[in-house]
Specification:
The protein is of the alpha+beta class. Helices cover 23% and strands 34% of the residues. Strands 1, 2, 3, 4, 5, 6, 7 and 8 form an 8-stranded mixed sheet that branches. A hairpin with a 5-residue loop joins strand 7 and strand 8.
Length: 154
């Protein structure tokens, strides 16, 4: 991917425009459902909650004449008072450029001292460890057989 101007964006569930939500969901489906061949219910009913925080990098794509989402993460409030970070994803052409790390650092700033949890794909658990998370349970397979580990950051 050629370097063009990238903009980091933030919106709560009730602030997202239909176009922004569409672009976010397109990236999530392209990677999680198509690339990783994980047919799972991507629409979980939490994206539009006013407390959900969406963080993403986008750039204008001159080939299609509109913005495209390069990387994304969301922050949820769990009923027990912890934050849950999830759906961390980077488009294939944008990988290796530090976009997910920047989003995670923004997410951690967003939640401050609030404890947080996530379920990391095992292959990237070291990435989350470098951000202060630690494995708190046994590896498990999600519904599509992808290995994950539960992680916590106090």
């Amino acid at each position: 991917m050629t370097k063009t101007e990238r903009i980091q964006r933030r919106a709560t569930g009730n602030e997202l425009s239909a176009e922004e939500l569409y672009r976010i969901l397109r990236l999530r489906v392209d990677v999680f459902v198509v690339e990783q061949k994980a047919a799972y219910p991507e629409l979980d009913g939490r994206d539009l909650a006013p407390s959900t925080v969406h963080l993403w990098w986008e750039t204008d794509d001159p080939d299609v004449g509109e913005a495209v989402v390069l990387a994304y993460a969301r922050v949820l409030d769990e009923p027990n008072g912890t934050a849950r970070i999830g759906r961390v994803v980077t488009a294939a052409p944008a990988r290796g450029q530090g976009l997910s790390r920047a989003l995670m650092e923004t997410a951690l700033t967003e939640i401050g001292d609030q404890p947080s949890v996530l379920d990391a794909q095992t292959q990237v658990a070291d990435f989350y460890t470098s951000l202060g998370y630690r494995v708190i349970g046994d590896e498990f397979l999600d519904d599509d057989g992808i290995p994950h580990v539960p992680m916590h950051r106090p």
